[in-house]
Amino acid sequence: MNMSPANKADKKATVDAAAWMFNVVTSVGIIMVNKALMATYGFSFATTLTGLHFATTTLMTTVLRWLGYIQGSHLPVSELLRFVLFANLSIVGMNVSLMWNSVGFYQIAKLSMIPVSCVLEVVLDKMRYSRDTKLSISLVLLGVAVCTVTDVSVNAKGFIAAFVAVWSTALQQYYVHFLQRKYSLGSFNLLGHTAPVQAASLLLLGPFLDYWLTNKRVDNYQYSLISVMFIILSCTIAVGTNLSQFICIGRFTAVSFQVIGHMKTILVLILGFLFFGKEGLNLHVVLGMIIAVVGMIWYGNASSKPGGKERRSPALPINKSQKTDGLSESTEIDGKV
């Protein structure tokens, strides 16, 4: 039985909201767990931990493929390696940027991902934004900046690390949407292709990079039952974080993911004050939160209106063998998640 347009729109809105909530809950949850793991239990090996996250995700996709929930799909090796290069540069760049830069400049670098993602969409996808959409994005950036940016100092190597981190992250997030559209890949399928390669590369690179960043060796860490439980919990939540990121970017775009994703920044600030609070919520932080939330609501309304955000070129061609049902099946599976 065919659904009416109104019912289809309602269903899409419901699934979209569920996807965002899934991403927000898992992303905020993993930040809180990792903060406890690193601050309280001294496990400061961020790159190695990310490799463990992707190893757990690989295990999940392998089990789902064995159970028949993930169907066979094709992704060219060249596209896979390009994606993994961007993704790993993003992880390494962010870690190095945090080490070499002040917290203030690190936050500014993260905020610049939105305009960089906009540039990629305008250049590569011929996307066009209305005046209200541009202004709403600016308001979100202002609000989050007021919340998070404190002292700002930068040096040459810190700037280079931040530049690499921002552009590689924006390219990786753009590529998620690009590959799902071009090859009709669902979130599970794309994770099934990328997670094993990322896990292997990060687990090989991670211990050396972490030693360079922290001057500590992961094999010398004094593991305890509680710290191991936190590592397992972090890896478990990471499966949902990785999957929800692919679902959200696949359903929306990298820019929308970044804009509304700053709600996670606000939630992390609030939860950080509640659970790890060394200082209270001061006036300028509360003001910044209000500005950012208003900007996010404005962005949602502006970008959904006709002409608010639209592509000026035809959609990417889809492989003929997959055109009839591949995309609809992958979307249906993501919706069920």
TrEMBL record:
The record's region (Disordered) falls at 304-337
Q: How does it sit in the membrane?
A: Multi-pass membrane protein
The family database entries (InterPro entries) matched by this protein are listed as:
Sugar_P_trans_dom (IPR004853), TPT_transporter (IPR050186)
Q: Which residues form the Sugar phosphate transporter domain?
A: 25-299
Keyword match Phosphoprotein: no
- Span-the-membrane segments of this chain are 20-43, 49-68, 80-98, 135-152, 158-176, 188-209, 221-243, 255-277, 283-302
Q: Does the keyword Ion transport apply?
A: no
Q: Where is the composition biased (Polar residues)?
A: 319-330
Name of the protein this chain belongs to: Sugar phosphate transporter domain-containing protein
Q: Which organism is it from?
A: Vitis vinifera (Grape)
